[in-house]
Amino acid sequence: MRNFFRVLGFGKQYRHYAVLNVVFNLLSTLFHLLSLLLFIPFLRLLLGQVQPVDVRPTELWTREGLEGTFNWGLTQLIETRGQMGALLAISILVVVIFLIKNLFRYLAVVAICNFRNYIVRDIRTAIYDKMLELPLRYHSGERKGDLLALITNDMHVMEYSVMLYIEMVFREPIAILLFLGTMITLAPQLTLVALILLPVSGLLIARISKSLKRKSTRVQEKGADLLARVEETLTGIRVIKAFNGEADMKRRFARENEMLTRSSIAMLNRQDIASPLSETMGAAVMAAIAYLGGYYVLGANATLTGDSFLGFIIIFSQLLPPIKGFSQGYSAIVRGSASGQRLFDLLAVENTVKERPDARPVNAFNEGIEFRNVTFAYDSPPKEPANRERKAVLQEIQLVIPKGKSVALVGTSGSGKTTMAGLLPRFFDVTGGQVLLDGKDLRDLRINDIRSLMGIVTQDSILFNDTVANNIAFGTPGVALADIERAARIANAHEFIAQLEDGYQTNIGDGGNRLSGGQKQRLSIARAVLKNPPILILDEATSALDTESERLVQEALYKMLEGRTSLVIAHRLSTIQHCDEICVMQQGRIIERGTHQQLFDAGGQYRRLCDMQAFA
Description:
Elements: H1 2-9, H2 15-37, H3 39-47, H4 63-133, H5 136-139, H6 144-163, H7 166-186, H8 188-235, H9 237-242, H10 246-272, H11 274-298, H12 306-347, E1 368-376, E2 394-402, E3 406-411, H13 417-423, E4 432-437, E5 440-441, H14 447-452, E6 454-457, H15 468-472, H16 481-490, H17 494-498, H18 517-531, E7 535-539, H19 547-561, E8 565-569, H20 573-576, E9 581-586, E10 589-594, H21 596-602, H22 605-612
Parallel strand pairs: 3-8, 3-9, 6-7, 7-8
Antiparallel strand pairs: 1-2, 1-4, 4-5, 9-10
Helix pairs in contact: 1-12, 2-4, 2-7, 3-4, 3-12, 4-6, 6-8, 6-12, 7-8, 7-12, 8-10, 8-11, 8-12, 11-12, 16-18, 21-22
């Protein structure tokens, strides 16, 4: 239940809806109870047991006073309209009371609907915001399928198990208390018997609910595994088909699907037994009370009238549904708390790349960038021991990039080039040492200000399911179409964009899958051109281009690099020959540095890479 109250914590600003729900449910229950109590005089009229009351009681707020006042009014009604007239009046009154009761019930539902959906909206927003907030270090160690399952499957369970039954927490206790109070007034002996017998069913339901949470947790885990498998299939569908891997992927999916099905069946079987069990227990309690009630009515020392006993039975029958509903709601909340735990676990993940409260703004780049004795190691994956030592990806990096100069990083795959570039926009924070911007540690500056000074083109073209224009203008709102077109021309993208069906307003599909690899890369370059940043990070920026496109884009990049500070990661000579300094990396260290000609003439690792044309 702790997670349930944590969910309610999201509803603090919407508590007026909860208050309205409680008030309307209270009024609805009162009118419902009043309509049931009217059946007692109705039965007395039918059975001819109405005792005339000619004097109105002076004390109203007691059981005898209320009953006497009602009987006095009924006596006056019978004397005025006769028994059939009184019966008709009571029937009409019952209908009116039911109408008022259902009006308040509707208003209660409207209030809780707003309360429930606003909470779900805020939790969903908090999860999405957390996903954006978490650093790349976290995302590199988590499956996308697990995160997708959190915001889809787990949110679905949260909405339709916890939030759907949230009203029962407010409504059913009110009904139970009012019905119990009335039962005590009518027949305290029978009420005591009911209070002794009813908790038995509650204990059984509690035992079922306890095991239900364990099974629900397993279902959510298996659901995440299945979603991860689907996401992996869609991402790698080209490779799957190319290597005839359909049969293997079908086997893997079938295994995950079967495990999810078995877990779901086990959970649902345990969940579905709660309702018939509570109904059977309720019927047993009802039979016991009916037998004992018969003794109090028909026994030698009768202490209960027949109409009061029937009224007690009617009210007791109305007590069972809220108890049953409360038990169902409790079971659903327990089942949903497993999903809630997964959601709150994500919200509790600490963001390792934090902006300090006193972080300083930075609006310009004036001097240069320095990597001062930088060391970096990735965190342990979630399933590995936290104290396990991780191998450093970067070790004692010393590098200065003066303003307006370009530095290239070359080396074999895994040497730490991309990781080093990721430290500049604070995708990660150094494990040791400092990265300085104009002599200031990046950790002392505002993250948004740092990233606004940088333009990044990655090896993988990351595009969104939107128009060409919006992809180029991403992160630069309010830019004119003329500026978008100018950036596209510089990136050699305008010609193919103009040939698209709707030009710059053409939707490029999920991940830009309606475009070729070279076209997608040119859009990524155009996006960086439009931003016009003083610092450029090019991570294999031309790797997806054909020879002709590469030549034209290289010309555009040369113009764009003029007067800008740039960090270039590339494996083609045409990309790095013009750089002011080339750093050769191996196993996280810089082992050679100099210009292209200097390194080539030295005949070291750089010369071997040139000869092999294996720049990573």
